[in-house]
Amino acid sequence: MAVLTPMIFPFPVAVAAALFAAAALVPRHASALTRHDFPEGFVFGAGTSAYQVEGAVEEDGRKPSIWDTFTHQGYSYNKSTADVSADQYHHYKDDVKLMHEMGLDAYRFSIAWPRLIPDGRGEINPKGLEYYNNLIDELIRHGIQPHVTIYHLDLPQSLQDEYNGLLSPRFIDDYTAYAEACFESFGDRVKHWVTVNEPNIETIGGFDNGRLPPQRCSHPFGENCTRGDSTTEPYVAAHHLLLAHASAVRLYRDKYQATQRGQIGITLLGWWHEPATNSSQDAAAATRMNDFHIGWPSLHRFMHPLVYGDYPTVMRSRAGARLPNLTAEQSKKLRGAFDFIGFNHYLVVRARADDSAFNLKQRDYYADASAIADPFEDIQAGGLEYAPWALGKLLDHLKLKYGNPPILIHENGTDRTRGDTSCGLSSTFSSSSSATVRVSVCVAST
């Protein structure tokens, strides 16, 4: 399947979001959408992550990540693994050629920590270094900007085994050292860095409901829980990811940015929440979820500290002692620790009030928000809702709360069934900020 999700977005920074599962499998009719459909200054790009497309999981010194463990234990959909996947490790030249033929301006990919530094810390793997140098050089040779994600949920399994990964503050130093290896090795050519992709999703999926690796959770909040604590661990993991991000940004700005002249940010996932019914209770629940999701577990949990240096008041009041404290020095490092915010948005989620949850002695993130808002339930019930207006509301929300930060749309859109040719600029709307946003979705399925 190839998914193309272009956008025209006149906020401070405009970047196209285009996704495809495997560059080698772009169907012929996807060529109906080209770079010429977009104006000058618009960046038409495509994005992947290392584990999804590289394959070669046991080749040339790469060691397992928590995703390898997760899929090999049979927890992924259809019990599939990414052992081969699109095999970009061996076919990157073919993939870059296809990107060039599609007219892409940028390719967003992630570096696999267990391929570059297989043990999580220590020596760089020469074969891993060679692969990423070759990929970056091939992109530049074809006039394609490399946009690099340093960490995309594929923690080396060795660090998970050693100290429980994100639950330990030791992660911060190991991540910072890994990030520096990336800056030193590739920063002369890479001008767009993302420290972490969707940390909000990793912390909820990995430590609250257990749907993602390292699959830690506790009853009754998670699924198939054998270890973990859904009431505290999502907050701790997010806290350490946030501090790791700030540490890498400080390092880059102090040591590399002046000479390498790049930009660095973080990519967050944001769902817009609407009330499930017309009741005032559900309306309040949707508001709380937008404050929680856009702030704490998703955007607010990360955006608020990055702009204001502390967690949102609503998070403090509801999570209490389960929410880690920030020292004065940590707060200083966090405030303004981004040149841009990468933003992923796919769907609107319907929120229902659940005030009884707040009275429970043990509460997870959703109970803290006193709301039921599970996007996976919505997807299973009726598929993704095509709602470009939700993106506009979400961007207005960010602008209002956080002073119009530079935004790069990294991922966006929903798919279509085989034979659906509804491509092109399909929706135009004006947001309350008086900015006109035109959203286009075009998907070709094989």
TrEMBL record:
PROSITE patterns: GLYCOSYL_HYDROL_F1_2
The keyword Kinase is assigned to this record: no
Classification via SUPFAM superfamilies: (Trans)glycosidases (SSF51445)
GO biological process: carbohydrate metabolic process
Keyword Repeat in annotation: no
Enzyme class per UniProt: hydrolase
GO molecular function: beta-glucosidase activity; DIMBOA glucoside beta-D-glucosidase activity
Reactions it catalyzes: DIMBOA beta-D-glucoside + H2O = DIMBOA + D-glucose; DIBOA beta-D-glucoside + H2O = DIBOA + D-glucose
Pfam families (alphabetical): Glyco_hydro_1
Keyword line: Chloroplast, Disulfide bond, Glycosidase, Hydrolase, Plastid, Signal, Transit peptide
CC per GO annotation: chloroplast
Localization terms from the record: Plastid, Chloroplast
Database matches in PANTHER family: 4-HYDROXY-7-METHOXY-3-OXO-3,4-DIHYDRO-2H-1,4-BENZOXAZIN-2-YL GLUCOSIDEBETA-D-GLUCOSIDASE, GLYCOSYL HYDROLASE
Function: Acts in defense of young plant parts against pests via the production of hydroxamic acids from hydroxamic acid glucosides. Enzymatic activity is highly correlated with plant growth. The preferred substrate is DIMBOA-beta-D-glucoside.
Protein known as: 4-hydroxy-7-methoxy-3-oxo-3,4-dihydro-2H-1,4-benzoxazin-2-yl glucosidebeta-D-glucosidase
The species this protein was found in: Triticum turgidum subsp. durum (Durum wheat)
